[in-house]
Amino acid sequence: MIAYLVSDKKITALKSNALVFFLTEKFNFNDELKSFAKERYPHLQEFMKRFEFTGKKDQVLAAPLVDSGTNYCGVFVGLGKKDGKTIPVEVYRRALGNALRKAIAYKCETVALQLPDPKLFGLTITDLVKETVTIAGMTNYRFTDYLDAEKKKKELFEITLCVEKAQKEKAMEGISQGEIISTAVNKTRHWVDLPPSHLTPEFLANKGKEISKKSGLKCTVFNEKQINEMGMGGLAGVSSGSHQDCQLVIMEYTPKKKNVQTIALVGKGITFDSGGLSLKPASSMETMKEDMSGAAAVIATMEALAQLKPDVRVIGITPISENLPSGTATKPGDILRFYNGKTAEVRNTDAEGRLILADALSYAVKHYKPDAIIDIATLTGACAYALGPFYTGLISQHPELAQKVEEAAKRSGDHVWALPFDDDYKKAVLCDVADLCNIGKPQYRAGAITAGFFLQAFVEDVPWVHLDIAGTAFDVPDRPYYRSGATGVGVRLFIDLLMNWK
């Protein structure tokens, strides 16, 4: 964990190992830079000119310091041009990630940040600090559970934020919010990064129980026997090939404020996906521990909401299962009956996420009658190929809800892109021998969209958005606040959406 401090002192008066400055393109030497040059690096302007540092976006330059006590380097990061009224906050996120990566490369354990003017990004000081702390925590994350002591390199443990004296109180508010968000994101990442034989359905369900008990949330967990008794043929059917029992976890946050709306978050939790009897190629199985990323995001979000306390009731529902082949596994051609009574022929056992979500969505509609449902799932390779690793696919026929999600995505940094969702695709998942088929007819192609129409059959008339994170949940490149492995996508989006819900 990083300790965060707030200071109104000059950055050069601090003992941090790295001193970080954020500069716009063609910047002027301000008081902070003049002070740094005078006290720490007299030839700073010549040094910047030699390395052609002008403050362009993505530029980062480190000036190593000698004979300066505990200060090892100065780090200068470009924010680019101020096009229009403001600079996109995503530019700042990446600049901060690059700066901290550079500081870590110089083996710095403490860093001081000369925060830029929040008005540059159209933010308040509280929001700028919240973003700073969130991204710093995400940048500092490493999965080290299985490394020996020598390989567990030290990371940052202290960051000092340099602000004006009048901003200190508001900055402390931002630190509190940012720590909650980054902890939730990194908890999601840690669960996803765990080996699938460690993180089983029961393990993840127990995490939901532990969090609920600690956070004062109501929690209900159904085991496989109860799931079968309730008639959840999708969740039970996917689990039938594994000796690991499936679980259905329901976490409830209720605010003190009365007469509020109810939002259901539903997350896919396949702790390992072999494809079942429709076996995946070996190379496609290598990262399939990530197939519970949606469930992990929902559970971690619920813990964050219990601390942030939005004025909206939130129900987190996570169907959790393991999809393996065996003599008892669901077979292609089997017909499953779901919680709402609908049936589906299973043509391909590797299209299993929609089967477990169908039961969870049906349960949410029947028991909570929510004002909106948002599900999140590593659902289709088709979406990953369509949008790549930077945008989560959004599917909905409810424009008002979709707009809220899109706005939250833009603010939070968990970017989404709406796919066409016209009824022209609906017939793709109809079936001659059951109500639905779990894969779309080949002539319709568009696998991410046709999967959405399968899910739509289980939400009735409740406003609903489906988020396909198949491309964004794992191994996202070129983002300095990520590493290889899990990203925790969805957590920042959900928190922003629900904290701003109207």
Can you describe what's shown?
By secondary structure, the protein is an alpha/beta fold. It has two domains: 3-166, Leucine Aminopeptidase, subunit E, domain 1 (3-Layer(aba) Sandwich), CATH 3.40.220; 186-499, 3-Layer(aba) Sandwich (Aminopeptidase). It is 36% helix and 19% strand. The chain has 15 helices and 18 strands. The strands form three sheets. Strands 7, 8, 9, 10, 11, 14, 15, 16 and 18 form a nine-stranded mixed β-sheet that branches. Strands 1-6-5-2-4-3 form a six-stranded mixed β-sheet, sandwiched between helices. A hairpin with an 8-residue loop joins β3 (60-64) and β4. α3 (89-105) packs across α4 and α13 (399-412) packs across α15 (491-499).
Considering the chains and any ligands shown, give keywords for the structure.
single chain, 502 residues, alpha/beta, Leucine Aminopeptidase, subunit E, domain 1, Aminopeptidase, 2 domains, elongated
The figure for the number of domains is 2
Instruction: Give the class-level CATH name of the largest domain.
Output: Alpha Beta
State the helicity in percent bands: 25-40%
Level-2 CATH architecture of the largest domain: 3-Layer(aba) Sandwich
Query: What is the H level of CATH, i.e. the homologous superfamily of the largest domain?
Result: Zn peptidases
Give a count of the beta strands, DSSP E runs of length 2 or more: 18
| Rg (C-alpha, Å) | 24 Å
| Largest sheet descriptor | 9 strands, mixed
Task: State the distance separating the first and last CA atoms.
Answer: 33 Å
Secondary-structure class:
alpha/beta
Mean pLDDT: 96
